[in-house]
Write a structure and sequence with these properties.
heterodimer; A: 211 residues; mainly alpha; 8 helices; 66% helix; elongated; B: 207 residues; 2 domains; 75% helix; globular
Chain lengths: 211, 207
């Protein structure tokens, strides 16, 4: 997090540290009663201050939440530079795909109709060309996703939607997921998202929000 | 990541065990965020950062100063990330009309460079305000740039009595505070504009 030495950015961080020190000192010198009063005035009940263990547990839980969100965002939006880069590629990619498809077609035809082609070029007609019954049985299809797996995908979508403040979409995805996997509704992330949706769609009038 | 084996965990836990310390942390978070729900989250996020050996581990300063600094940093970061996220709304991606990448994000370095550029800009503003005045404050600022931050170290580097260094720090605070407030106003304005752009894009897609 720290900039390199002799970087002017360090100077500002030092100034920030001085400002942080000032703010911390101004709160530290308040009496307990004054602190409680300040908390109440801001709408925070002093009796609900978490214990040290609770604070550490919540910090750890938030780490997990972040990891979950990071996983959900495994597929990410391209940066403008990447977009430009990919925009230049489609023609090359299409061409390569076309060549690959033609090559595959050639192989298939050679395997399926090899003797007939050879016969055609050699003008041999002795060997009758019969049906080819040596095809391998079709490979088994992967099993369809379970309702829980589908619900997980929907919940990941909901997380993305919630992060983008698209509350209605987020709610719909969560509802869909709940229909498929009611047990997953109890997860802390889902609960948190439900709360966020509620706040996002029906914000309380006295909530100052982001400062 | 919170590292439960980190020695800092015990030190942080010891500090948090004091109810007075916890109440004051919440009070500081409330002053920063202005919202009880955000204050709780901010304290938790700052603890996470302080426990992370690669984040902002608690080494020097008092615990309260360190946590205040961490909370301000986290809050700025969250607002900045929010605004960066909204900078390039591209509904074509969500509509499946544009490409997606599975490669690791390349934005982190760009993000860091943007952050450093902002810090440098703010440093320049403070220096511009100090221009021609308060040479001692300027000296202390420059020493901090070189990594010399402790009042006693700065006093011996100048060299002047430590009381003068404290006075220089007081002056620096006086000049840095309006610079910070000005920057916060600019950020709020920028975010408002981005939200408006974002809303327009959303309406366009929905229609």
């Amino acid at each position: 997090m720290e900039p390199d030495k002799n970087d002017a950015a360090r100077g500002w961080l030092f100034a920030e540290k001085l400002l942080a020190e000032e703010l911390a000192e101004s709160v530290e010198k308040l009496t307990d009663e004054e602190v409680d009063e300040e908390l109440r005035a801001a709408g925070y009940d002093p009796a609900s201050i978490p214990t040290a263990d609770e604070m550490l547990e919540r910090a750890a839980a938030r780490t997990l939440e972040r990891e979950h969100a990071a996983k959900a965002q495994d597929i990410r939006v391209l940066s403008p530079a990447e977009r430009r880069h990919t925009a230049e590629r489609p023609q090359t990619r299409t061409l390569l795909l076309l060549v690959a498809a033609m090559f595959t077609l050639f192989i298939v035809v050679m395997v399926e109709q090899g003797p007939a082609i050879v016969a055609f070029f050699k003008h041999h007609t002795e060997a009758p060309i019969g049906p080819d019954n040596e095809r391998s049985p079709p490979s088994p299809q992967p099993p369809p996703p379970t309702p829980e797996e589908r619900a997980e995908v929907l919940r990941n979508d909901a997380t993305l939607a919630c992060e983008d403040y698209r509350w209605v979409l987020c709610r719909d995805k969560l509802d869909e997921a709940r229909a498929l996997d009611p047990a997953g509704e109890g997860s802390p992330i889902v609960k948190k998202e439900r709360t966020a949706i509620q706040k996002g769609l029906y914000p309380p009038r006295d909530d100052k929000g982001m400062k | 990541m919170c590292d439960s084996s980190a020695p800092s965990l015990d030190r942080v836990h010891a500090q948090l065990s004091d109810p007075r310390c916890r109440a004051r942390l919440i009070a500081i978070a409330l002053r920063i965020t202005g919202s009880p729900a955000s204050a709780d989250d901010l304290v938790n996020d700052a603890i996470m950062l302080v426990l992370d050996p690669e984040g902002f581990p608690w080494k020097k300063w008092t615990f309260m100063t360190h946590m205040t600094f961490a909370m301000r940093h986290v809050w700025d970061e969250q607002r900045r990330r929010f605004s960066v996220k909204k900078e390039i709304p591209d509904e074509n991606v969500t509509l499946g009309l544009k490409g997606l990448s599975r490669e690791p994000p390349a934005d982190d370095e760009l993000d860091r460079r943007r952050w450093l550029a902002t810090l440098r800009q703010l440093a320049q503003r403070v220096l511009a305000k100090l221009d021609g005045q308060h040479p001692r404050a300027r000296q202390c600022f420059n020493l901090a740039v070189q990594g010399i931050e402790q009042p006693a170290e700065q006093a011996s580097a100048i060299p002047r009595p430590v009381a003068e260094v404290y006075e220089a720090h007081r002056i620096l605070r006086r000049y840095a505070s309006p610079v910070r407030k000005e920057w916060e106003r600019e950020e709020e304005q920028r975010m408002r504009e981005q939200r408006a752009t974002w809303d327009r894009e959303q309406r366009k897609v929905q229609s």
